[in-house]
C-alpha cells in the first residue's frame, strides 16, 4: 500500500513531512532514477500554482532531480493540465506540478505525469516510494549535506525550510503553446453578445485564463486573479461556486466559470445564478458527443459520487453510465479500459479522451461554451431535465484512516441506512485521498431520511476516529 502518493500525488502542509526539504530532495532523486531506467538523461518539465511555498519546493525538488541525472525546465505558474500537455507534446520524460489543488495555501503537493501525459500508475509510484524511504533511513549517505546545505537544509533536523532558493528559469513560450492548443479545440467560437464572469481562484488560472479569453469577443469579467501566495482558494474558486454564481446575478451575465487552484477542474453558473456542477456538464457534453456520433459505445464514466439523477437523465438519452472510484486518475483508467470518450467527476474534473489526458478546467470551459454557442440555447435550457436527487456530504476529520469495516458501530450505522433507503437512495462512505477526512455521502428521495442517516454515520466515525 502506498504511503506517500494519494489519489492526486503527494500532498501535505508545506515544510512538514512529507513536504519537508530532505524528503522533497529524496523524491526528486528517486524520480530521476526511475526515469533514467527508461530514458538516459531524462528531461523534466516543472510547473506550479501560486502558493508562496512553490518556489522553494521547486528548487529543492530540482536539486534532487539534477543530482539523479535529470535536466529540468520550468514553465513557471501554470495549470496542471498544461504540464500534462507539455509533457506529452514536447518529449519530456516526466512533468511535475507543485500544487495542492483545492487545499488551503498552507498545503502544497507534488503531482507527476509520465511521458504520455498520464498520471503515473500505482506500481510506479510504489517503486519510487521504496527508494524515497531508503534514502531517508538514518545513516543513509544519499542526501549529501554539501548539496542540501546550499538550500539551508539540515538533513538531521528535517524541519528547516530553505530561506533562499531559486527554481529553474521560466520558459515563457510553454504557456503560449498551451494557450494555442486550447483555442485550437474550439475554432469559430465567438462570445460576442455575451457577458462571462470568470473566477480564477487566485490560482494557476490567473496566469492563463486572461490570455485564453482575450480574443474570443464578448465581455469577459475576470475575478480573483490577483494571487499573493496566501489567497489561493480563499472564499473563491471551485470550492465556493456560490461566489461566481452571485456575481453572475449582479453583473447580469450569461454564465459564470470558476476554477480550482491548479485549474484541472471547473464549475459553472447558469444565467440565473444557479450553480452547475460536473454532473450537469457530463450530461450536456455526452448528449453533444452522441449527437455528433463521437460518444464511443454510448458510454460515460462517472464516479460513485455522481448523482442518481445524472444516471437517469443519461439513460433517457440512451447513454450508459459506469461508475469508477473517486479520483480523475481512476475515471481515466476505466475510460481507457472501456473505450469511453467522456468521463468525469461531480467536482468538475472532466476528461475528453483524444483532447487531454487529465481533467482540464479551461478546456472544459471552452468546450461547454462552444456547445452553448452552437446550440443557440442557454445553459439552463440545455440541462433543464436533469432532476437531482437530494444529496448530502458530511466530512469528518480523522486522526487515522482505519478500515471502516472493522469498526462495529460504523458498520451498523451504514447497514441501517442501506436497509432503510433500499432502492430509493445510495450510501457511499470513503476516505479522502488527499486530506485526513472521512466523507459520508448519502442520496435519497427523502431529504429528512438522508440527513438522519448521514449524521448517524458521521457521528459513529467521529466517536471512534475523530480529532
Automatic annotation (TrEMBL):
Domain spans labelled Alpha-D-phosphohexomutase alpha/beta/alpha: 3-134, 177-273, 277-385
Organism: Edaphobacter aggregans
UniProt protein name: Phosphoglucosamine mutase
Cellular component terms (Gene Ontology): cytosol
Span of domain Alpha-D-phosphohexomutase C-terminal: 394-459
Protein purpose: Catalyzes the conversion of glucosamine-6-phosphate to glucosamine-1-phosphate.
Modified residues (Phosphoserine): 101
Keywords: Isomerase, Magnesium, Metal-binding, Phosphoprotein
Description of post-translational modifications: Activated by phosphorylation.
Active site: 101 (phosphoserine intermediate)
Binding site for Mg(2+): 101, 260, 262, 264
Taxonomic classification: Bacteria, Pseudomonadati, Acidobacteriota, Terriglobia, Terriglobales
Amino acid at each position: 500500500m502506498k504511503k506517500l502518493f494519494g489519489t492526486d500525488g503527494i500532498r501535505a502542509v508545506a515544510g512538514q513531512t512529507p513536504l519537508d526539504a530532505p524528503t522533497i530532495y529524496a523524491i526528486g532523486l528517486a524520480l530521476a532514477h526511475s526515469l533514467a531506467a527508461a530514458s538516459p538523461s531524462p528531461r523534466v518539465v516543472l510547473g506550479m500554482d501560486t502558493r508562496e511555498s512553490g518556489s522553494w519546493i521547486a528548487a529543492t525538488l530540482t536539486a534532487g532531480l539534477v543530482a539523479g541525472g535529470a535536466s529540468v525546465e520550468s514553465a513557471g505558474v501554470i495549470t496542471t493540465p498544461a504540464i500534462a500537455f507539455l509533457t506529452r507534446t514536447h518529449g519530456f520524460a516526466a512533468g511535475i506540478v507543485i500544487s495542492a489543488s483545492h487545499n488551503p495555501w498552507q498545503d502544497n503537493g507534488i503531482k507527476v505525469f509520465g511521458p504520455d501525459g498520464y498520471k503515473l500508475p500505482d506500481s510506479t509510484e510504489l517503486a519510487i516510494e521504496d527508494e524515497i524511504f531508503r534514502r531517508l533511513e538514518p545513516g543513509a549517505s544519499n542526501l549529501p549535506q554539501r548539496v542540501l546545505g546550499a538550500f539551508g537544509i539540515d538533513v538531521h533536523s528535517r524541519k528547516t525550510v530553505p530561506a533562499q532558493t531559486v527554481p529553474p528559469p521560466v520558459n515563457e513560450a510553454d504557456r503560449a503553446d498551451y494557450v494555442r492548443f486550447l483555442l485550437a479545440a474550439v475554432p469559430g467560437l465567438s462570445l460576442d453578445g455575451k457577458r462571462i464572469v470568470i473566477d480564477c481562484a487566485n490560482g494557476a488560472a490567473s496566469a492563463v485564463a486572461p490570455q485564453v479569453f482575450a480574443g474570443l469577443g464578448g465581455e469577459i469579467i475576470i475575478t480573483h486573479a490577483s494571487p499573493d501566495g496566501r489567497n489561493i482558494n480563499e472564499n473563491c474558486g471551485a470550492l465556493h461556486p456560490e461566489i461566481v454564481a452571485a456575481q453572475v446575478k449582479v453583473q447580469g451575465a450569461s454564465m459564470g466559470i470558476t476554477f480550482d487552484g491548479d485549474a484541472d477542474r471547473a464549475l459553472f453558473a447558469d444565467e440565473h445564478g444557479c450553480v452547475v456542477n460536473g454532473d450537469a456538464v457530463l450530461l450536456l457534453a455526452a448528449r453533444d458527443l452522441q449527437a455528433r456520433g463521437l460518444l464511443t459505445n454510448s458510454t460515460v464514466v462517472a464516479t460513485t459520487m455522481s448523482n442518481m439523477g445524472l444516471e437517469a437523465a443519461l439513460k433517457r438519452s440512451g447513454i450508459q453510465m459506469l461508475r469508477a472510484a473517486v479520483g480523475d486518475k481512476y475515471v481515466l483508467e476505466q475510460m481507457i479500459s472501456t473505450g469511453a470518450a467522456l468521463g468525469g467527476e461531480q467536482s468538475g474534473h472532466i476528461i475528453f479522451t483524444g483532447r487531454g489526458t487529465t481533467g482540464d478546467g479551461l478546456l472544459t470551459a471552452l468546450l461547454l461554451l462552444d456547445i452553448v454557442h452552437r446550440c443557440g440555447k442557454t445553459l439552463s435550457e440545455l440541462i433543464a431535465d436533469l432532476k437531482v436527487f437530494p444529496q448530502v456530504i458530511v466530512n469528518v476529520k480523522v486522526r487515522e484512516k482505519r478500515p471502516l469495516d472493522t469498526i462495529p458501530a460504523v458498520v451498523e450505522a451504514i447497514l441501517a441506512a442501506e436497509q432503510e433507503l433500499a432502492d430509493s437512495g445510495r450510501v457511499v462512505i470513503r476516505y479522502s485521498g488527499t486530506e485526513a477526512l472521512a466523507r459520508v455521502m448519502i442520496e435519497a428521495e427523502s431529504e429528512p431520511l438522508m440527513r438522519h442517516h448521514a449524521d448517524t454515520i458521521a457521528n459513529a466515525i467521529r466517536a471512534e476516529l475523530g480529532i
